[in-house]
Each structure stands twice: as structure tokens, then as C-alpha cells.
Amino acid sequence: MSTEYETIELAVSDDGRATVTLDRPDSLNALDDRMAEELLDALETLREESARVLVLRGRDGNFCAGADIGTSPETTAPHEQTRRFRRLRRLFDRLESFPLPTVAAIEGYCLGGGCELACCCDTRIATADATIGVPEITLGVIPACGGTQRLSRLVGLSRARDMILRGKHYDAATMHSYGFLHEVGGDRSFEVLLKDVVEEYLARPPVAIEFAKRVVNKGYESPLDAGLEMEALATGVLFGTEDAEEGLDAFRTNRTPEFRGE
Ligand code: COA
């Protein structure tokens, strides 16, 4: 399956790999309003597909150099700007709570809104020469697509404050040491690393992945007691799935499970 968009490309292979490619290479895949709308549409479209993992990446060796600052906004009225950022927020919220596992495949520049998109993904991998940061402060503004909140939850308050207030660029090794990147393409090529991560997710049980993601994300924002209750409820549901039956049987009979998402 392949859907035509102007600023992104969406492709889903028969075995369930969905790839969304940010496709504005002339501006290092900067995120404009059209791209945000198309990304939202792609996430909606993917809900109808039988995809099992979503990869987000950028065209021509860069992930995304942030919100599009090449063109002036149509309006500078403060209330209109606030509405615009609320609309953008929908995209980032939906990506974060997307029911499939999501992988940010980061090459080259991953700045500002690009870094904030990556923050919403479950797994972040990068090439060794990737450059990551939230430089908005150098423009007189602040990260406005969840960066002030999600980045600190991922890398810790101390590092996030330093990153956001100084607006520096960081290399992949540093962001790996911060816990932002899960793996960095080193000896193995980046595409091999990406393929391995995608294949791990394809082999996992989809319903358990969806529930685990919800419980972890919702539980993190809740009192411990409420989070533990969510965990117990989700576990009860999952033990009733065919996938759990398959996983337990495969373990007992020493074979590889085949999960069908049921
Ligand atoms: N929005 C719109 N266009 C952007 C962009 C952005 N966020 N980032 C880069 N571009 C465009 C440049 O204007 C340039 O276009 P041009 O060829 O028509 O002049 C093209 O992408 C290549 O960028 P350039 O600056 O020439 O490349 P570089 O290798 O010298 O520098 C960066 C790359 C990423 C360091 C630099 O482009 C940059 O700092 N971009 C802004 C990053 C940022 O502040 N993001 C947060 C936005 S809120």
C-alpha cells in the first residue's frame, strides 16, 4: 500500500512495516502546517491498515530540521498562533499514543520540531553522525510541540533545562549517553540496525504492545497506585488473548511464537 501526499510519503509493506518519510529535503524536511496535516492523516490512515510497526524517517539523509522557519506565518495574531500550536499538538499527542510501536530513524539533523517528533516515538535510533537539539531559544522562542515537557521526561530535568536554555546541537554519542537514543549505528550499518529493530517489533504480540504502551504512558502521569491498577487490569485482559495462549504454548513446546494480534 502507498498513499500519495505532498510533503510526506507513506508506505506499508505486506508484512506490516509502515514507513512515513518526511519529504521536504530542500528545507531539511522542515515541518510546516501542510506536513503536520498530512502526518495526522497518515496516522489516521494507518489505523485502518494491518501494519504492526511504524518507522518515521526523513528524506535524503536528514530527519527534520524543525518547524518551518523559512516562510512567515500567515498571521502573527497571538491567539491565532496559540490555536495553530494547539492543532500541532494533536499530531504529537497522537503519535505518542499511537497503538503501534513507533521507531524514529534519525539521520543527519534532528532539531526543534524534529527532535520533538522523535520524543513521541517509542524507540529512537540514529546514525553516528546525527545532530540533535532544540535550538528554538536561539530564535527567541521555546520548543512548542511538547519539547519543554517530553524532553525532560526522557532525559531528565537537569539535561533538558540545559538543552532547552542553551539551544546547543548534540552529537549522537552524547544523546545516547543521555538516554535519548536507544541505539546508534556504529559498526553495523544504520539500515541493518533499523531492519533489526523493525523485525523485533514485527515478532512481538500487537495487543500486548498496545496495552503495554498505554499502561506505561498513562501510568507515568498517574499516582503509583492508579498505574499499578491499570497494569493489573491490562494484564487480566491480556491473559485472555489468543496471543498470550500462543506465547505461553510456544515457550512450553520450545518453538517460536506466531502472534496474530488476537
Ligand atoms: N525551516 C525552513 N527551512 C530550513 C530549516 C527550517 N527549520 N532548516 C533549514 N532550512 C533550509 C535552509 O533555509 C536552506 O534553504 P536554502 O537552501 O533555500 O537556503 C536549506 O534548508 C539548507 O539549510 P542550510 O542552513 O543551508 O544548511 P546548513 O548545513 O548550513 O545548516 C542547519 C543546517 C540545520 C544547522 C541550519 O539550517 C539551521 O540551523 N536550521 C534551523 C534549525 C532550527 O532552528 N530549528 C528549529 C526551528 S523552530
Automatic annotation (TrEMBL):
<dbReference type="Pfam" id="PF00378">
    <property type="entry name" value="ECH_1"/>
</dbReference>
<keyword id="KW-0456">Lyase</keyword>
<dbReference type="GO" id="GO:0006635">
    <property type="term" value="P:fatty acid beta-oxidation"/>
</dbReference>
<dbReference type="GO" id="GO:0016836">
    <property type="term" value="F:hydro-lyase activity"/>
</dbReference>
<dbReference type="InterPro" id="IPR014748">
    <property type="entry name" value="Enoyl-CoA_hydra_C"/>
</dbReference>
<protein>
    <submittedName>
        <fullName>3-hydroxypropionyl-coenzyme A dehydratase</fullName>
    </submittedName>
</protein>
<dbReference type="InterPro" id="IPR001753">
    <property type="entry name" value="Enoyl-CoA_hydra/iso"/>
</dbReference>
<comment type="similarity">
    <text>Belongs to the enoyl-CoA hydratase/isomerase family.</text>
</comment>
<dbReference type="InterPro" id="IPR029045">
    <property type="entry name" value="ClpP/crotonase-like_dom_sf"/>
</dbReference>
